[in-house]
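Case study.
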Amino acid sequence: MTTEAFDKRLAAEIIAGFDARPEMLVQILHAFIERFGWINADAIRQLAEELNLSRADVHGVVSYYHDFRTSPPGQHVIRICQAEACQAMGSRELSAHAEGSLGIEMHSSNADLTLEPVYCLGNCACSPAVMVDGKTYGRVSPKRFDEILGGLRGAN
Amino acid sequence: MAATRVFVPRETAAISVGANEVAVEIAKQAKAAGASIELIRNGSWGASWLEPLVEVVVDGQRIAYGNVETADVAGMFAKDFLTGGDHERRIGPIMSIPYLMNQDRWTFWRCGLIDPLSMDDFRAHQGFRALEKAFDIGADAVIETVKASGLRGRGGAGFPAGIKWQTVADAEGKQKYVACNADEGDSGTFSDRILMEGDPLGLIESMMIAGFAVGASRGFIYLRSEYPLTYSILMRAIAMARDAGWLGNDIQGSGFDFDIELHLGAGSYVCGEETAMLESLEGKPGIVRYKPPLPAISGLFGKPTVVNNVVTLASVPNIVNLGGEKYASFGVNRSTGTLAFQLAGNIKRGGLVEKGFGVTLRELIDDWGGGTASGRPVKAVQVGGPLGAYLPAEQLDTPLDYEAFIDIGAMLGHGGIVVFDDAADMAQQARFAMEFCAIESCGKCTPCRIGSTRGVELIDRMLAGVDREDNYELLVELCDTMEDASLCAMGGMTPFPVRSVLKYFAEDFSSAVGADE
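After joint prediction, the assembly is written out as follows.
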C-alpha cells in the first residue's frame, strides 16, 4: 500500500473536504489512514485545532477504534480472520502457519509486513478468510496462503 | 448478432475465490474466438459454495457454471460455453439448482438477478415502484402495512419495525433521521453484504420509504470497514440515484426531500449495537448509551431516529408492493415472514438461504448445507453470532423461530449459522467468547469490561486443571453477573455461548487434562 509522510497541508485539505465537521472525525481519520498509513501526534493536534475539539477528544476516538493505528504498518498488511466461522475451518492453524512462514508474530509489524487478526470479513461461507492490503481472499489453505504471499513479494 | 450476455458476480465472496480473474479470462477468450459478449457483473445469488458462479444467457435462459477457475475458461470455450455447451463445470439452468429453487426469496429476489449498478435494470425489476406506491398511499398507510406484516428487526433484537416507525413518526421535532445499521459484525453473517452488493439501489429505496413514512429527510448508512467492495458499490449507487433525481430535493416531483450519507465504521464490534452506532455516526468513540431514551425519541444528534438493520429495511419494498398480509403468510407464530439464514463455517454448501421462519436447523444444515465440509459429524452449531449459544447435534430439530430459540436459551440474532465438526474443542470456543468480549467491550460498564477478562482467566485455570470445581462455580456466578448487570448485549449475552458449552460440552473441559481431583 502506498502512503506518504504526514503533511500538514495535505491534512488540512482532507479536513476541508469534510467541511471540518466534527461529526466526520471517524471518516476523516479513515482518510488520514489511507493517505498517511497511520495517525501520529501531529495529526491529532491538527485535528483538534481544526475541528474545535480537545486533543483528548481526538485521542479518545483514535485509541478506541482498531482501524486507527498509531504506529507505521509494514508495506503489506495481512489480516487473518479469527472469528468463529473461520475457526471452524482451521483459522487457528492458518495463523500459526502464517507466523511460522512469515517469521513474525500476530499483532506485530516489520518494515515489510504487518500481521494482525480481524474479527470477521463477512466471507464466512468461504472460510478461512484473509485480507491482504484491503483485498479479501477465501478458502485460504496454508498452501494458498503461501501462494498469495508469494505473489505479493514477486510484485515488489 | 446481438452480444451474448455473460454474468460473473462482483461480490466479495466470489471475488475472494477468483471471480475477477475469471471475468478477465472470459473477456480474453471471447475476443480470441471473435465472439461478441456483454459481460455483466451481477451480485451473488448467495450460493457461495458455487462461487465463482458464471452464467451465460442462451435462448433467454441463464445457464450456470459453478466453481469456475481461470484455468477452466479456455476449456469451456472449446466446448461452446457461449451456447451453453456441456462441460464438467456446467450445472444447468440457474433456477434448476435446488439450493436456490427451494427458497422464499422476498427480500433478496433481485440479488444475482440484476446488474446492481444499472438504473435501467433496477427500474425494469420493480425498482422504486414501492416508493411510488408509498407516495400514493401516504405515510400512515405505509406504517400500517409494515405493522400488518409483523416484520421484526433482523439485526438481532427482533423488535417490531412498524411500531418503531410509528414511534418516530409520532415523535415531536422537525428534523428526524433514518440510520441504517450495516455494521454486520457477527461471525457467520454476510446477508447485509450480499444485499448491499447485489441490490444497493433496493436498499436506497427502502431507506427512502422509511424516511417518507416517518418524516425524515436524511439517511445514514453505517457500514463496517471490513467491507471495502461494498463501500465502493454503495458509493456508486448513491451517486447514481442522485444523478437520476431519486435522491435530493423534491424527488420526482413528490415534494419529498431525502439524501443519504455513507459512513464507515472502524473495526469496533460494539458499534453494531444501535446506540454505539449512533455515537460513532456522531464522530465519537462507539460507547453505548443508556436507554431510555430510545433512539426513536432521541437518537442521532438527539433527534428522533429510525435505526434498522439492512435486511429489515430491504424487506419493506415488497411489503408495500404486495401487502403486509402476504409477508405475514410466511413464517410461524410471532416470527412472521422470511429470514436470510447464512450457512457458514464447516459446511459443504455454505451461503445464503432466504426462507420462512419455522424451518429447522437440521433441514438447513443437511438439505441445503449438505452436512459438514470435512464430512465428519456435526458437533456444535452456533446460531446468532459470537453472542449465540452453541447447540449440540441433538437440538438441530428446533424450528428457527425467535421465541422457540429463546426457550432453549439461544437466540436467532442475524440468522448466522456456524457449523463445527467433531474435531472442535468447545472449551476453546467458550474461552474465545470471553476473550472476544474482552477485546471488543466498549468499557462503559464493569461486568463486561472486567468480567470478560476474569472469565478468560477462570477458563484458563479450569483448562489447566486448577481447582476446577471452585472455578466452575465462580464462572457460573460471573455469567450471572454479566447477564444481569451489563448495559448491552455484548456483556449481557457473552455468557450464552459460555454456558452452552458448560451445559452441553462439559467433557471438553475435563478432557483438557486428566481428572484433577
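Observations recorded in class. Chain B touches chain A through 62 residues (CB under 8 Å). The CA atoms of residues 269 and 440 of chain B lie 6 Å apart. We will return to this complex in the next lecture.
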